[in-house]
């Protein structure tokens, strides 16, 4: 089995789980025991400042939104670009942290870019593979630009469009294709 770490899981219309309707999940870990990912397309209405005031009783000036990483409850988790706080390097220059000290440092020292998540997406042994085999997920290699985009509303559309264009290029044996084929 090849690890899906560093890949984007894009929910296909065949995925019956409403928790993942039109979502893009960054795969943080994947091995024979299961998988962990974070949804990149579910910002909450909770700001970092409000969350930190509630959790730590401290005032910070960060008005970025906290993201819902998935339906499974867990500790705060972060995806960031600050190497000294890394626990896992997901892809070059993009790191994962869930350790309390690392999260505190990321928030208090205002390291950007970062995303803070409540909840995560988790799959047991062979569960994700079964969902993929059933056509529930599409795959695309992640890029830092996907992870830290400020336009999360467009992310699902953009990555599904890229997958469609890649399929057309390979099926039709094209070397290049315009971003908008109607302009051809």
From TrEMBL:
Alphabetical list of Gene3D superfamilies matching this protein: VC0467-like
What Pfam families does the record tag this protein with?
DUF179
Residues in a coiled coil are none
A single Gene Ontology CC term: cytosol
SUPFAM superfamilies attached here? Answer: VC0467-like
InterPro entries referenced in this protein's UniProt entry, alphabetically:
AlgH-like (IPR003774)
Q: Which family does it belong to?
A: Belongs to the UPF0301 (AlgH) family.
PANTHER family recorded for this chain? UNCHARACTERIZED PROTEIN YQGE (PTHR30327), UPF0301 PROTEIN YQGE (PTHR30327:SF1)
Q: What HAMAP family does the record point to?
A: UPF0301
Name of the protein described by the UniProt record: UPF0301 protein DSM3645_23841
């Amino acid at each position: 089995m090849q690890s899906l770490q560093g890949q984007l899981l894009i929910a296909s219309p065949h995925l019956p789980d409403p928790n993942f309707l039109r979502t893009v999940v960054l795969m943080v870990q994947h091995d024979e025991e299961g998988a962990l990912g974070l949804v990149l397309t579910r910002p909450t209405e909770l700001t970092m400042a409000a969350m930190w005031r509630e959790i730590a009783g401290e005032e910070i000036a960060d008005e970025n939104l906290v993201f819902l990483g998935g339906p499974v409850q867990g500790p705060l988790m972060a995806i960031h670009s600050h190497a000294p706080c890394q626990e896992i390097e997901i892809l070059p220059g993009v790191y994962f942290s869930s350790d309390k000290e690392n999260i505190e440092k990321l928030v208090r020292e205002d390291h950007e870019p970062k995303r803070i998540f409540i909840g995560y997406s988790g799959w047991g042994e062979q569960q994700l593979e079964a969902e993929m085999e059933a056509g529930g997920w599409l795959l695309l290699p992640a890029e830092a630009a996907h992870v830290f985009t400020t336009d999360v509303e467009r992310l699902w559309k953009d990555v599904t469009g890229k997958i469609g264009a890649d399929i057309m290029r390979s099926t039709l044996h094209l070397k290049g294709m315009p971003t908008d084929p109607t302009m051809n």
